[in-house]
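**Protein fold record**
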Amino acid sequence: MKTELKEKYGLITAIAMVVGIVIGSGVFFKAEKVLNATGGDLPLGILAWVIGGLIMIACAYTFAVMATRYQYVNGIVDYAEATMGSKYGYYVGWFMALIYYPTLTSVLAWVSARYTCVLFGWDIVGGPCMTISCFFLIGSYALNTLSPVLSGKFQVSTTVIKLIPLFLMAVIGTIVGLGNGMTAHNFTTVVNHVNTSNALFTAVVATAFAYEGWIVATSINAELKNSKKNLPIALVCGTFIIMAVYILYYVGLAGAVTNEVMMAGGEAGAKLAFETMFTNVGGTLIFVFVIISCLGTLNGLMLGCTRGIYSVASRKQGPNPEIFGQVDKVTNMPTNSSVIGLLLCAIWLLFFYGANLASPTWFGFFCFDSSELPIVSIYALYIPIFIMMIKKEKDLPAFKRFFMPILALAGCVFMIIAACFSHGKAVIAYLIVFAVIMFIGAIFSKQKNVA
């Protein structure tokens, strides 16, 4: 079988695609958490962004090398199959469909709604915010299911729009802050003294949400000119640019308002920072761009979510592959899969509210942050893939076969340890839920094998 995709992208386009895919709402959502986790210690917060970025770069480079070795790879499931076999690929696909995509999609619907409530001065915790979250979730689903072409155009537009607030705050906020002394004040003032190691672990795990998405960029391998040379370059350059933009944005915020204001205000603090730099009208307009950026990220995640079960069914695996593998002849969408994807998003949105926002919480011991732990668990799933790559690819030079994969492995282990320190007993609760969902996947797998 030969691929029909043509090599049409050059290096510059590939770098732009990497940047566009990864940069989204995470930096807006997690900048305040990083600051709170580090007690307002700006240098420690920047170190967290650097560590998270370097882990992303090491992993992205290792996957880029794999993409040049395996002809048919189009995402993490394909890498899992190529290195570990179809069984491991099935479980990774099951995890992506039932946990990874719907948890992150539901959180992004809530983040988009939260920023919208801040814009209009509405309650950011209760009814209005959750109502808007459901609206955004259903709207994104409808856009992806009924008009994939329009969804694609919306995705391209938001890619451009979401860079505007980042670059404006990074450049102007830094310049103004250096001039009026706000940046120097924030760099030298620690609001709350915290345990440095625990604070760093918590902050790095928070940055993982902002950096997530780079694995999708490796799927352009078949369409990239001279991919063996250009894909690793594009991944490394693109991820370095992302890390630099995030750090500069983080520093730019420090030039606009004090750390105390950002830590106390959260999303409202970010809005105040934009208004301080660009007047009330200008700041509000840029804040609208932030909301559009969040909606763009939500749209991209919903795209993956609607295809989650389909990606398993298309391999003749999982429950009822003949049903969930169907594609609508008119819209060219896996309609049955998309319905399950929306249902899973609704379930995880309900869980997120009950576990993290309701007072008292609804689920007792089984409360955990579904915006971070699924991302950490995917780093755990990378570990066998990297180990098998080291074992199998014997003709690679030492740098590509040993140095970068071992660095990536170290980064994955760091993320796991950091999550344990950051989330404590919540990790156990998450692992129990994870185990139950994967056990259900195993039942369906056994049913298929018997059939």
